[in-house]
Amino acid sequence: MKNSGALLREHVPLCDKNTFAVGGISRYYCAPETAEELREALRLAHGKAMPLFVLGKGSNVLISDHGWPGLTLHLTDASADRPIAWEGAAATASGMAALNRLVKGSVERGYAGMEELAGIPGTVGGAVIMNAGAFTSCIADTLDAVTCCDRLGGEPLRRRVSELGLGYRTSLLQKGGDIVVSARFAFSRTADPRELERKRKEVIDRRRKKQPLDFPNCGSVFKRPTGNFAGALIEKCGLKGERCGGAEVSVKHANFIINTGGAKAGEVRRLICIIQKRVYEQCGVLLEPEVIFVGEFEEPLFRARP
User: Fold this and answer.
1) Which of 16-30, 67-81, 161-175, 190-204 has the lowest mean pLDDT?
2) pLDDT for 14-39, tens place per residue?
C-alpha cells in the first residue's frame, strides 16, 4: 500500500529496529524522509483509524511479542543525513537527527551544556520528548523551542520551552502524543573545545566501563527514585544476574536488563515485575519504569497495595 509520498509496508518485524532486539510484527510500517511525508503518513493513519506508534532509534522501548496492530512510524536518520543548522551559539536540528551528532557538533564549536549526553543512542525528537539526560545534564538545559505536529498530520506548530512541561524523563509532548519535527537549542556557556571533547570522551568511556553495552538492552530500565538509585536498590536485593528466559539483570549494572540471546519481550516484562516486587518488599520503594511499553503484555506491572 502506498500513499503519495512515503511507502507503507505491511507485516514488518520490529525486533531489528530497537536496541532490545525483541518484539513482534507491525501491521503497517513507514519510514518518512521529509516533513511532508511525515504529515502524509499521519493523515493516512488518522483517516484509516490506525493505532499509531512513533519509533526513533528504539533505545527506550519494550515492544510486545504480539507486535503492533496499526502503523509504526519510524523516524530515524538511518536513510539520510538529517540536517543540523548552526547559527552562532544556536542549533536547529531535525527531530530525526541522531542526538550524538548534535552533542559532537556543540563540543567541536566550544558550546558547553551537552557533553554529558554523549553516548545516548536516540534521536533528537525522542530525546526532547523524554527530556533525556545523564549525570548532571538533561535536554531541558539547552532546549530553546520545538516545532511539532499533532497526530492528525496538521501543519507544524512552534512551541516555547515553557509550554512543554519538561520534567524528569518526561514532558507534555510525551503525554499528548505530539511529534517533534525539529528542535532549536541555545547555548549560553562556552569552553575550550579540547576540554569539552575530553569530557565527552570521558563520559563515553564511563558508559563502556559501567554499562553492559555488549548485549542488547534498552538503557536504564527504571527512573531514579527520590534520594536513591535504582541500580543500588536492585543490587541490594540480590537481583544481579536474576534471569527470566533469555532476559537477565546485568551483573555489570543492575538497572540494565540484557538480552542474552533469544529473549522475548514477555520475559523482559516479567523480570521487570519481579524487580519491582522484590525492591518494594525489601526496601519499601516502588520503582517506576523508564522504559516505554509498546503493545499488549500479559504480565501486569507490580502495584503496591494501599
Assistant:
1) 67-81
2) 999 999 999 999 999 999 988 888 88
Exposure string of 15-25, with b = 16+ CB inside 10 Å and e = fewer, is bebbbbbbbbb
3-state secondary structure of 44: helix
Q: What is the pTM of this model?
A: 0.91
Alpha carbon distance 71, 50 (integer Å): 6
Taking only the tens place, the pLDDT of each residue in 130-188 is: 999 999 999 999 999 999 999 888 888 999 999 999 999 999 998 888 899 999 999 99
CA atoms within 13 A on the CB side of 29: 17
Distances (CA, A) of 165 to 40, 145, 180: 28, 12, 14
Using a 10 angstrom Cβ sphere, with 0-12 exposed, 13-18 middle and 19 or more buried, the burial of residue 235 is: middle
* Cβ atoms of 58 and 31 closer than 8 Å: no
Number of H-type helices and E-type strands within the chain: 7, 18
CA distances from 238 to 63, 171, 233 (A): 27, 33, 9
The residue annotated as part of the active site, out of 242, 248, 267, 290, is 290
- Average of per-residue pLDDT across 201-216: 96
Q: How many CA atoms lie within 13 A of 40 on its CB side?
A: 15
Catalytic residue flag (residue 79): no
Active-site entry in 59, 171, 182, 220: 220
Is residue 220 part of the annotated active site? The answer reads yes
The yes-or-no answer on residue 169 being catalytic is yes
What cell numbers appear for 170 in the block?
Answer: 518526561
Q: Which of 55, 56, 95 is nearest to 71 (CA)?
A: 55
Q: Of 40, 106, 137, 169, which one is the catalytic site residue? A: 169
